[in-house]
UniProtKB/TrEMBL annotation:
Transcription found in the keyword field: yes
Keywords: DNA-binding, Transcription, Transcription regulation
InterPro entries reported in the protein's UniProt record: LysR_HTH_N, LysR_subst-bd, WH-like_DNA-bd_sf, WH_DNA-bd_sf
Protein name as annotated: LysR family transcriptional regulator
GO MF terms held by the record: DNA-binding transcription factor activity; transcription cis-regulatory region binding
HTH lysR-type domain: residues covered: 4-61
Pfam families reported for this sequence: HTH_1, LysR_substrate
UniProt record similarity statement: Belongs to the LysR transcriptional regulatory family.
The organism of origin for this protein: Amycolatopsis antarctica
Keyword Iron among record annotations: no
Length: 300
Protein backbone atom coordinates (compact mmCIF):
# COMPACT_ATOMS: atom_id res chain seq x y z
CA UNK A 1 0.00 0.00 0.00
CA UNK A 2 1.38 3.39 -1.00
CA UNK A 3 1.45 5.88 1.90
CA UNK A 4 -1.09 8.74 1.76
CA UNK A 5 0.16 12.21 0.95
CA UNK A 6 0.49 14.71 3.77
CA UNK A 7 -1.96 17.25 2.35
CA UNK A 8 -4.72 14.64 2.26
CA UNK A 9 -4.03 13.82 5.91
CA UNK A 10 -4.21 17.53 6.80
CA UNK A 11 -7.50 17.77 4.93
CA UNK A 12 -8.97 14.81 6.82
CA UNK A 13 -7.97 16.29 10.19
CA UNK A 14 -9.58 19.64 9.26
CA UNK A 15 -12.81 17.96 8.13
CA UNK A 16 -12.98 16.44 11.59
CA UNK A 17 -12.46 19.88 13.18
CA UNK A 18 -14.87 21.88 10.97
CA UNK A 19 -17.48 19.23 10.12
CA UNK A 20 -17.36 20.55 6.58
CA UNK A 21 -15.32 19.67 3.50
CA UNK A 22 -15.86 23.21 2.19
CA UNK A 23 -14.44 24.91 5.29
CA UNK A 24 -11.53 22.48 5.41
CA UNK A 25 -10.78 23.22 1.74
CA UNK A 26 -10.92 26.97 2.37
CA UNK A 27 -8.52 26.61 5.29
CA UNK A 28 -6.00 24.87 3.01
CA UNK A 29 -6.57 27.29 0.14
CA UNK A 30 -7.93 24.71 -2.31
CA UNK A 31 -11.27 24.39 -4.13
CA UNK A 32 -13.98 22.18 -2.62
CA UNK A 33 -14.12 19.82 -5.67
CA UNK A 34 -10.37 19.26 -5.33
CA UNK A 35 -10.79 18.56 -1.61
CA UNK A 36 -13.57 16.03 -2.26
CA UNK A 37 -11.41 14.31 -4.86
CA UNK A 38 -8.46 14.13 -2.44
CA UNK A 39 -10.61 12.54 0.26
CA UNK A 40 -12.03 9.98 -2.17
CA UNK A 41 -8.51 9.07 -3.27
CA UNK A 42 -7.43 8.72 0.37
CA UNK A 43 -10.39 6.42 1.09
CA UNK A 44 -9.58 4.20 -1.91
CA UNK A 45 -5.90 4.06 -0.94
CA UNK A 46 -6.70 2.98 2.63
CA UNK A 47 -9.74 0.85 1.71
CA UNK A 48 -11.86 2.60 4.31
CA UNK A 49 -14.84 4.97 4.40
CA UNK A 50 -13.55 7.98 6.31
CA UNK A 51 -16.18 10.70 5.75
CA UNK A 52 -19.96 10.51 6.04
CA UNK A 53 -21.25 13.08 3.56
CA UNK A 54 -24.74 14.45 4.35
CA UNK A 55 -26.82 17.46 3.35
CA UNK A 56 -26.08 19.06 6.73
CA UNK A 57 -22.32 18.67 6.36
CA UNK A 58 -19.57 16.10 6.47
CA UNK A 59 -18.54 14.18 9.57
CA UNK A 60 -15.90 11.57 10.12
CA UNK A 61 -16.90 7.96 10.39
CA UNK A 62 -15.53 5.90 13.34
CA UNK A 63 -12.74 4.71 11.00
CA UNK A 64 -12.24 8.32 9.93
CA UNK A 65 -11.81 9.43 13.55
CA UNK A 66 -9.21 6.71 14.13
CA UNK A 67 -7.25 7.58 10.97
CA UNK A 68 -7.48 11.33 11.72
CA UNK A 69 -5.99 10.72 15.18
CA UNK A 70 -3.04 8.84 13.71
CA UNK A 71 -2.71 11.47 10.97
CA UNK A 72 -2.52 14.21 13.59
CA UNK A 73 0.40 12.45 15.30
CA UNK A 74 2.18 12.10 11.94
CA UNK A 75 1.69 15.78 11.18
CA UNK A 76 2.87 16.81 14.66
CA UNK A 77 6.03 14.73 14.23
CA UNK A 78 6.63 16.31 10.82
CA UNK A 79 6.24 19.81 12.31
CA UNK A 80 8.77 18.83 14.99
CA UNK A 81 11.18 17.61 12.32
CA UNK A 82 10.89 20.83 10.32
CA UNK A 83 11.21 23.01 13.42
CA UNK A 84 14.30 21.09 14.56
CA UNK A 85 15.89 21.30 11.13
CA UNK A 86 15.28 25.05 11.04
CA UNK A 87 16.86 25.41 14.48
CA UNK A 88 19.92 23.46 13.38
CA UNK A 89 20.21 25.54 10.19
CA UNK A 90 19.86 28.79 12.13
CA UNK A 91 22.53 27.64 14.56
CA UNK A 92 24.92 26.85 11.71
CA UNK A 93 24.19 30.16 10.02
CA UNK A 94 24.89 31.99 13.30
CA UNK A 95 28.33 30.42 13.79
CA UNK A 96 31.60 30.87 11.95
CA UNK A 97 34.77 28.95 12.80
CA UNK A 98 37.98 30.55 11.54
CA UNK A 99 41.61 29.48 11.68
CA UNK A 100 44.30 32.09 11.08
CA UNK A 101 48.07 32.19 11.11
CA UNK A 102 49.75 34.56 13.56
CA UNK A 103 50.33 37.60 11.36
CA UNK A 104 46.84 37.52 9.89
CA UNK A 105 45.23 36.87 13.29
CA UNK A 106 47.02 39.82 14.88
CA UNK A 107 46.79 42.42 12.14
CA UNK A 108 44.06 41.69 9.56
CA UNK A 109 41.44 39.15 10.60
CA UNK A 110 40.08 41.10 13.62
CA UNK A 111 39.19 44.03 11.37
CA UNK A 112 37.44 41.74 8.89
CA UNK A 113 35.48 40.06 11.69
CA UNK A 114 34.46 43.42 13.15
CA UNK A 115 33.11 44.61 9.82
CA UNK A 116 31.25 41.32 9.26
CA UNK A 117 29.61 41.50 12.69
CA UNK A 118 28.31 44.98 11.97
CA UNK A 119 26.09 43.42 9.30
CA UNK A 120 25.51 40.16 11.25
CA UNK A 121 25.40 41.27 14.90
CA UNK A 122 24.15 37.89 16.22
CA UNK A 123 26.94 35.94 14.53
CA UNK A 124 29.22 34.00 16.87
CA UNK A 125 32.78 33.81 15.55
CA UNK A 126 35.36 31.41 16.92
CA UNK A 127 38.98 32.14 15.97
CA UNK A 128 41.75 29.58 16.35
CA UNK A 129 45.27 30.95 16.00
CA UNK A 130 48.05 28.61 14.84
CA UNK A 131 50.86 28.58 12.31
CA UNK A 132 50.07 28.28 8.61
CA UNK A 133 50.74 24.55 8.42
CA UNK A 134 48.37 23.86 11.32
CA UNK A 135 45.67 26.17 9.94
CA UNK A 136 45.81 24.33 6.61
CA UNK A 137 45.25 21.05 8.42
CA UNK A 138 42.30 22.51 10.37
CA UNK A 139 40.70 23.63 7.10
CA UNK A 140 41.44 20.27 5.44
CA UNK A 141 39.79 18.34 8.28
CA UNK A 142 36.73 20.63 8.45
CA UNK A 143 37.48 21.81 11.98
CA UNK A 144 37.26 25.40 10.72
CA UNK A 145 34.97 26.82 8.03
CA UNK A 146 37.68 29.05 6.60
CA UNK A 147 41.43 29.36 7.12
CA UNK A 148 43.85 32.23 6.53
CA UNK A 149 47.50 31.39 5.89
CA UNK A 150 50.73 33.11 4.90
CA UNK A 151 52.67 30.14 3.49
CA UNK A 152 54.06 30.36 -0.05
CA UNK A 153 52.28 28.11 -2.55
CA UNK A 154 48.91 26.40 -2.36
CA UNK A 155 48.43 23.59 0.17
CA UNK A 156 47.23 20.23 -1.17
CA UNK A 157 43.48 19.49 -1.25
CA UNK A 158 42.60 23.13 -0.54
CA UNK A 159 41.21 25.97 -2.61
CA UNK A 160 43.21 29.16 -2.06
CA UNK A 161 42.18 32.78 -2.65
CA UNK A 162 44.37 35.85 -2.31
CA UNK A 163 43.15 38.20 0.44
CA UNK A 164 46.18 40.44 1.10
CA UNK A 165 49.86 40.97 0.44
CA UNK A 166 52.72 41.35 2.88
CA UNK A 167 56.44 42.01 2.89
CA UNK A 168 59.05 40.46 5.14
CA UNK A 169 61.71 42.91 6.28
CA UNK A 170 65.03 42.61 8.08
CA UNK A 171 65.01 44.43 11.42
CA UNK A 172 67.61 44.93 14.13
CA UNK A 173 67.73 46.79 17.45
CA UNK A 174 69.32 50.26 17.46
CA UNK A 175 73.07 49.96 17.85
CA UNK A 176 73.37 46.63 16.08
CA UNK A 177 76.34 46.56 13.62
CA UNK A 178 73.95 46.17 10.68
CA UNK A 179 72.43 49.59 11.44
CA UNK A 180 75.80 51.21 10.59
CA UNK A 181 76.24 49.47 7.23
CA UNK A 182 76.62 51.68 4.20
CA UNK A 183 75.55 48.95 1.78
CA UNK A 184 72.38 46.83 1.78
CA UNK A 185 72.54 43.32 3.15
CA UNK A 186 72.81 40.38 0.76
CA UNK A 187 71.45 36.84 1.12
CA UNK A 188 74.98 35.76 2.00
CA UNK A 189 74.92 38.15 4.97
CA UNK A 190 71.63 36.67 6.16
CA UNK A 191 72.78 33.05 6.10
CA UNK A 192 76.11 33.95 7.73
CA UNK A 193 74.40 35.56 10.77
CA UNK A 194 72.23 33.69 13.30
CA UNK A 195 68.75 35.24 13.32
CA UNK A 196 65.72 35.30 15.58
CA UNK A 197 63.22 33.26 13.55
CA UNK A 198 59.74 31.77 13.68
CA UNK A 199 59.23 28.04 14.13
CA UNK A 200 59.17 25.61 11.20
CA UNK A 201 55.69 25.37 9.71
CA UNK A 202 55.08 29.10 10.06
CA UNK A 203 54.41 31.10 6.90
CA UNK A 204 57.17 33.60 7.73
CA UNK A 205 59.79 30.87 8.08
CA UNK A 206 58.65 29.05 4.93
CA UNK A 207 58.63 32.27 2.90
CA UNK A 208 62.14 33.21 4.01
CA UNK A 209 63.57 29.72 3.41
CA UNK A 210 61.91 29.46 -0.01
CA UNK A 211 63.27 32.87 -1.07
CA UNK A 212 66.78 31.88 -0.03
CA UNK A 213 66.53 28.60 -1.95
CA UNK A 214 65.45 30.46 -5.09
CA UNK A 215 68.51 32.69 -4.70
CA UNK A 216 70.75 29.62 -4.33
CA UNK A 217 71.40 29.86 -0.57
CA UNK A 218 70.73 27.49 2.33
CA UNK A 219 68.33 28.24 5.16
CA UNK A 220 69.41 30.67 7.88
CA UNK A 221 70.94 29.52 11.14
CA UNK A 222 68.51 30.22 14.00
CA UNK A 223 69.72 32.21 16.98
CA UNK A 224 66.30 31.82 18.63
CA UNK A 225 63.27 29.94 17.28
CA UNK A 226 60.01 31.43 18.59
CA UNK A 227 56.31 30.63 18.16
CA UNK A 228 54.81 34.01 17.26
CA UNK A 229 55.61 37.26 15.50
CA UNK A 230 55.10 39.09 18.82
CA UNK A 231 57.74 36.91 20.49
CA UNK A 232 60.20 37.54 17.65
CA UNK A 233 59.54 41.28 17.79
CA UNK A 234 60.03 41.38 21.57
CA UNK A 235 63.26 39.42 21.31
CA UNK A 236 64.66 41.86 18.74
CA UNK A 237 63.60 44.98 20.66
CA UNK A 238 65.36 43.65 23.78
CA UNK A 239 68.59 43.22 21.82
CA UNK A 240 68.64 39.46 21.18
CA UNK A 241 69.59 39.88 17.54
CA UNK A 242 68.23 40.70 14.08
CA UNK A 243 65.23 39.01 12.49
CA UNK A 244 63.25 38.67 9.28
CA UNK A 245 59.64 39.48 10.15
CA UNK A 246 56.39 40.74 8.64
CA UNK A 247 56.32 44.48 8.04
CA UNK A 248 52.80 44.45 9.51
CA UNK A 249 54.15 43.20 12.83
CA UNK A 250 56.81 45.91 13.27
CA UNK A 251 55.39 48.98 11.53
CA UNK A 252 54.84 50.86 14.80
CA UNK A 253 58.27 49.90 16.19
CA UNK A 254 59.97 51.14 13.03
CA UNK A 255 58.07 54.41 13.25
CA UNK A 256 58.96 54.87 16.94
CA UNK A 257 62.63 53.98 16.45
CA UNK A 258 62.54 50.89 18.67
CA UNK A 259 63.64 48.85 15.65
CA UNK A 260 65.67 49.71 12.56
CA UNK A 261 64.86 48.36 9.11
CA UNK A 262 67.96 47.08 7.35
CA UNK A 263 68.03 47.40 3.53
CA UNK A 264 68.31 44.09 1.71
CA UNK A 265 69.05 43.32 -1.95
CA UNK A 266 69.32 40.19 -4.07
CA UNK A 267 66.27 38.44 -2.65
CA UNK A 268 62.51 38.93 -2.89
CA UNK A 269 60.57 38.63 0.38
CA UNK A 270 57.11 39.73 -0.72
CA UNK A 271 54.32 37.23 -0.16
CA UNK A 272 50.63 36.60 -0.79
CA UNK A 273 48.29 35.97 2.15
CA UNK A 274 45.50 33.52 1.32
CA UNK A 275 42.15 32.20 2.47
CA UNK A 276 41.85 28.41 2.20
CA UNK A 277 39.04 25.87 2.38
CA UNK A 278 38.58 22.24 1.24
CA UNK A 279 38.56 21.56 -2.50
CA UNK A 280 35.12 20.59 -3.77
CA UNK A 281 33.25 22.49 -1.07
CA UNK A 282 31.45 25.72 -1.90
CA UNK A 283 31.65 28.47 0.70
CA UNK A 284 28.22 29.64 1.88
CA UNK A 285 26.77 31.86 4.60
CA UNK A 286 29.08 33.82 6.91
CA UNK A 287 32.23 32.11 5.57
CA UNK A 288 31.44 33.30 2.04
CA UNK A 289 30.57 36.77 3.36
CA UNK A 290 33.87 37.04 5.26
CA UNK A 291 35.88 35.98 2.21
CA UNK A 292 34.08 38.50 0.00
CA UNK A 293 34.73 41.23 2.56
CA UNK A 294 38.46 40.43 2.74
CA UNK A 295 38.79 40.33 -1.05
CA UNK A 296 37.05 43.71 -1.34
CA UNK A 297 39.71 45.19 0.91
CA UNK A 298 42.46 44.23 -1.57
CA UNK A 299 44.09 47.20 -3.30
CA UNK A 300 42.80 47.56 -6.85
Amino acid sequence: MAPPDLESLRLLVLVGEFGSIGQAATSLGIAQPSASKRLSTLERRLGLVLVDRTRRGSVLTPDGHAVAGWALRVLDELDGLLTGAEALRSQQEAQLRIGASMTLAEHLVPGWIGELKRSLPKLYVGLEVANSEQVSELARSGEVDLGFIESPGRPRDLVARKVATDLLVVVAPPGHPWTRRRRPLTPADLVATPLVVRERGSGTRETMDAALRRAGFPAVEPLLELGSASAVRNAVTTGAGPAVISELAVARDLGDGRLVRIPLEGIELGRVLRAVWPAGRKLVGPAAALLALAVRRLPG
